[in-house]
Write a structure and sequence with these properties.
The chain has 344 residues and is mostly beta strands. It is 4% helix and 48% strand.
Length: 344
Amino acid sequence: MISHASTASRCLLLAAALVAVHPLFAASPLAINWQESTPAPSPRAGYADGVIGEKLILIGGTYWQGTKGNWTQKVFCGTVDAFDPAAQRWEGLPDAPVTIGYPASATVNGEIFVLGGMQNGAPSSEVWTLRKTGGHLVWARRGRMPEARLFDVAATIGRTIYVSGGTREFEPFDAKGTCCTSRTACTTLWSLDTRNLAASWKVLAPFPGKPRWTQRVVAVGQSLYAFGGRYQARTEDPVSTYNEVWRYDTGTDRWSLVAKLPEVMQGSAPVAIHGQIVLVGESQTVLAFDPATLEYRALSALPRPASVDDFVLMGSLLVGAMGENAVEGPRRRSVWSFIGQVSP
């Protein structure tokens, strides 16, 4: 979600100032050369995503009916699109079995897991998977999480999926679907070993900080790193932001607060690359966070001011698409797609 209080120029100026005055923002050996790629066929945000073969698959999500200045209704869909970053070409695929928005998702062994979200208009605990079998993409139900969640986030270590946080309910500001308060935000952490899908989900140590949503989680080694988050119980309340970085140790089942998150990086999409965590911000700012030193380093900015839901590393390419942009004002979904060539 784009923070409308911050413009792209303000974000870039802040990032530049951090680099100039703060020793933690030194030059990084990791580099990303960005380019804007082929526009997506349908603008959406709040989708599930993953990789099958050489293609990025985007599943479901939400979009708005109406026009600039008069967005009339949020729509949850089951649309599925595939993007080939090598050919920079999009392909429409058959719809998902359910409409879905704001789920967690993860790719394990060539299979995309879609975890919870709003499914067919209601908060869901149901898990769906999409994989390629006999040359065809096949959907399957894979049980349920312990409770219904939406806005939950997922990370993988080996073939184990970890699902963190989210909300129990969809809490729009109005009947149109304008998003969202977070009164039902959760601190739960669950895991599932996908080698034995018949086994129960494990309930792990809950997140010890205050409840929040829009927290983002990524795995590095045997640890999870959780970034930021916001909270708003009622529409008339101010939004609380938590500029924190937490680490969860899977070996000890313990959380610890390890660093501060720059305000400009709230809601940024994290991706683990070569032991570092690349954070792609809600505007154009891109930083690398080193879990070993807890230092941030500035990277090349995204070509456009966008709030992309997720970025996925595919070989040496960092790929992301859709989400939101500020060109047509609040609630406008984006068709922009981006490819970053990662080096070394």
